[in-house]
């Protein structure tokens, strides 16, 4: 593994599949022109709208999203994460919130169904019940072991509040963990991402949604890349764009040597 550039893309996805994919392609091209080899798209990158609309279009969204990711990977010769889109579930009227990682040949190398669902009453007075339309995944995320990019793991948004999932990835040898999100507010976003990086001595790549997506649904933005010491290497702010930073194997080795906390664990 040599140093390379990674990108966390930030979007304002809306209830229009074609428009979102066109915007995603533009941002991917921007990332590639800056030299990125590993690119992450946020949760709901291909469609973000009312629940009924999402369910009605789920098959079309799933098909178009998977085809798009494979085309982008092959066209630009990158490894790319589609950070979360609906794939119809066996349970009628529900979907899986699914992230897939695709290699430059167009091969799907990670398929992760979001485990922790966002059923929360948030401080702004809004309530969210993701479980009303989403079936939780039952399998911990698999790993992608790459000599060129390092060992990559995947999570989705609300997962970030459950450190045991990230420790599972660390135990498998994770060097880089994706946290694609459509975060509803600023509370805990940065500190949780930093905590997951620090406690697992790994890079965190967190693509994000930002701005007004539909109706009254606002997302926070601040797509980030964070190093194993918890240093924020890139922050996309609150507008659509990219956060780009170097993934450096020497930095991984340095931090893990200076702070070998994973080796000092007593309870496993």
Automatic annotation (TrEMBL):
It holds the Pfam family CN_hydrolase. The keyword Hydrolase applies. SUPFAM superfamilies: Carbon-nitrogen hydrolase. It comes from Mojavia pulchra JT2-VF2. The keyword Hydrolase applies. This is Carbon-nitrogen hydrolase family protein. InterPro entries: C-N_Hydrolase, C-N_Hydrolase_sf, Nit1/2_C-N_Hydrolase, UPF0012_CS. Keywords: Hydrolase. Gene3D superfamilies: Carbon-nitrogen hydrolase (3.60.110.10).
């Amino acid at each position: 593994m040599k140093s390379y550039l990674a990108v966390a893309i930030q979007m304002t996805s809306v209830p229009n599949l074609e428009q979102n994919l066109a915007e995603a392609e533009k941002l991917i091209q921007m990332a590639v022109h800056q030299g990125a080899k590993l690119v992450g798209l946020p949760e709901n990158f291909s469609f973000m709208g009312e629940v009924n609309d999402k369910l009605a279009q789920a098959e079309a969204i799933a098909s178009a999203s998977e085809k798009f990711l494979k085309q982008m990977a092959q066209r630009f010769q990158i490894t790319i994460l589609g950070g979360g889109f609906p794939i119809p579930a066996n349970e009628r009227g529900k979907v899986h919130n699914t992230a897939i990682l695709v290699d430059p040949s167009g091969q799907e190398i990670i398929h992760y169904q979001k485990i922790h669902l966002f059923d929360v009453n948030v401080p702004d007075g809004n309530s969210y019940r993701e479980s009303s339309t989403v079936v939780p995944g039952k399998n911990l995320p698999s790993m992608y072991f790459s000599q060129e990019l390092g060992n990559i793991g995947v999570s989705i948004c609300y997962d970030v509040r459950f450190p045991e999932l990230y420790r599972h990835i660390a135990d498998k040898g994770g060097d880089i963990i994706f946290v694609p999100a459509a975060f509803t507010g600023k509370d805990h976003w940065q500190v949780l991402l930093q905590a997951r990086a620090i406690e697992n001595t790994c890079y965190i790549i967190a693509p994000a949604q930002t701005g007004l997506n539909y109706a009254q649904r606002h997302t926070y933005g601040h797509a980030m890349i964070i190093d194993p010491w918890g240093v924020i290497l890139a922050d996309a702010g609150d507008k659509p764009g990219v956060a780009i930073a170097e993934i450096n194997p020497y930095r991984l080795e340095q931090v893990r040597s200076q702070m070998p906390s994973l080796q000092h664990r007593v309870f496993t």
